Amino acid sequence: MRYLAHLTAALMALASTAPAFADDPIYAPGARIGLVPLVGLSPSKTFPGFETDDHRVKVVVAELPAAAFKDVENTAKSNAAGSQGIKPQSIETASGPGYFIVETGKDGADTVRRYSMVVAGGTFSGYVAAQIPENVEKIYSDQAIRKMLATVTLRKEVPVDEQLGLLPFKMTELSAFKMVRTLAPRAAIMLSDAATDDDIDSKPFIIVNLVGSAPERPEDRGRFARDIAATIPNLRDAHITVSEPIRINGSPGFETRIDATNAKSGAPVTVVQWLVFGGGNTAMRLIGSTPRDEWPTAFPRFRAVRDGIRPR
Questions:
Q1: 306 SS3 class
Q2: Angle CA(292)–CA(293)–CA(299) in degrees, nearest 5?
Q3: Is 206's pLDDT higher than 90?
Q4: Distinct helix (H) and strand (E) counts, the chain
Q5: Which of 113, 151, 290, 297 is the least buried, fewest Cβ under 10 Å from its Cβ?
Q6: Is the pTM value of this prediction over 0.70?
């Protein structure tokens, strides 16, 4: 239950006819969660989900851990209400059973109606949150929103071309990685040899994302690279083996290599971090991690991904 209560408000911060439905579900760009949106709702360009042209009505989608659905289901089947005193209601969706709650809240000075729903997705839980201002509740009524939530559909994977097309940079080389997974819409992506999410730490993977607040002066970049490398999660007993400026595709960059132990699996790993500095104070960050005995074959693949990235 805590997932629904706490995520609804956070996700909403991102983001005279009765509503009618289209025939087929529409997936939020880059998301594994789709639905048949009410008339007036279109895919958002700023967050994963849908919104009206005036941005006042929002429907946000997100992925939660697989355990989130079970947590809500247990609350719904127990006699106790959740942390906010609200008991989840069951709903049958296009992807199977789901649970939702309805709350009244505030968005600034406006009173809004908030709907939160979670659906089991196997390896993840699908989450949908809708925010409806009080003055349009006659159009986007409780009944209409519930009908929309019932159309929620989950897909196992997002097509690779769809994921890559949303990035602010072009990736021309995937280096035969098996899994392509968006980590942050329009901002970060991971390539991995893992067959499932549970295997990621035990296989080679590389993450590509953009970072802000990068130093513009070359003399500050070494310290910045070391500081940001220290934030790489899931490592213990880490020590830097390489730390040097390099050129990457003609741009100034910095390479940092780390030997460490994976905190989850306990296996020795080798990690490479590349920073590619662009204009202003932005940089592209690539983090490649692999079991240490696979480094000789993984490193050339990491480098091929790095060298295949181009500006749009």
A1: helix
A2: 70
A3: yes
A4: 6, 19
A5: 297
A6: yes
